[in-house]
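# nightly structure sweep
# worker-07 picked up a monomer target from the shared queue
# config: single-sequence mode, recycle default, output format = structure tokens
# input follows
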Amino acid sequence: MPEEEKQKKLSACSRHRFLYIPPCTPENFWEVGFPSTQTCIDRGYIKEDKNPEARLRRRQPLTALFSPKQSQQD
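# output follows
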């Protein structure tokens, strides 16, 4: 059988394979186990801030908000 006829016959038999192409799996999908922290940073799963923002301080200390009540004498 000539090569051209083989290709024609093959495309006629396995035509169903090209109707739906499944999506590719994501990179590192089939790796088993947990990656190290450095690997997660390299892959971009963890965002590492070089200069983290300073935390805001309270205007009033907690002791002023939740101090015990003083006895009121009339």
